[in-house]
Design brief:
Layout lengths: L1 H9 L1 H20 L4 H27 L7 H19 L2 H25 L4 H18 L13 E2 L10 H5 L3 E2 H19 L1 H11 L1 H6 L4 H27 L11 H11 L4 H23 L7 H5 L1 H13 L19
Antiparallel strand pairs: 1-2
Helix pairs in contact: 3-8, 3-11, 3-12, 3-13, 4-5, 4-6, 4-11, 4-12, 5-6, 5-11, 8-9, 12-13, 12-15, 13-15
Amino acid sequence: MQTVIAWATRNRTTLVLLGAVLVVAYVFYYARQDIAPSMFGAAWDYAIPLVLAALVGVIGERSGVVNIGIEGQMLLAAFAGFFAAALSGSMLVGILAGVGTGLLAGGFLAVTAVRWRMDQIIAGVVLNIIATGLTSFYLQSGQILPGVIPNLRVPVLAEIPLIGETFFSGRSWVATVAIILAVGVHLALFHTRWGLRTRAVGEYPSAADTAGIDVERLRMVNVTLAGSLAGLAGVYLSMDASSSFERGMTAGRGFLALAIMIMGAWRPLRAFAMALFFGFVNAVGSQLQQTGGVTIPPQLLGTLPYVATLVVLAVAAGRVRPPGAVGQPYVKKDQ
């Protein structure tokens, strides 16, 4: 009990803001039953791949590795998952192919940026270029998925007004997994030995090395495994959100996820909240587009999440601090 009170005291500002947001959301939900449920659902649908992609960035940068290649990881996974499912006739094969491709892309980044000590920004850009080139060159039209990713209704939680309808009912199981992963990564980072070691190699790798931690190995494992989350985000985009694959269908979500990670101060749950914010901004734009009498060009409305990103980043500049050794390759003193 004392631990809970201490935690609530440290995070009282966050809890007050969260409470205020929930009050406003419930007031809007009951006042506008005609549009509120669909808006909140659309916001969460848009935020799902952003949550997963932001977790990839959090794990990588907490380990000291900048991952500019999240966009490419998602694109390759979306491509591999969609066509594996279409050609094999099995959604399971497609999901495994997408997640596996994300792992391979994460492994590529880990080898180039950690083992070979290539500039991490350049390694990520190379991954994005490879992903764009491969998916464009091998793109085939006319492929049809054998089904859809099954929806999941979580008992009890699905009955909660607003929250249940938005998060736990009528969404694919990927949506529930995204919530579990956000909570799980947060707990793992701040309450487990792995999390302590990960934060150590991202903040002060030489001290971690002195304590007996294999810095290079841990960084490689973390960056590689985080690629599976990017793979799941890509699978969601091509096999659930749209049931098709198009050139460049990630549409900058990987870079938006990096901005969400920064605005979330490299903390999984804060990144989750920021992803929801951008999902809501996108939902507001879509609602304005559908409202009669509004003459705002749809191209302008489509830029709302990115404009909001610039505004929030400008406000947050200087207020958050990245991990101390992020972007810096580590070389053992005896090498």
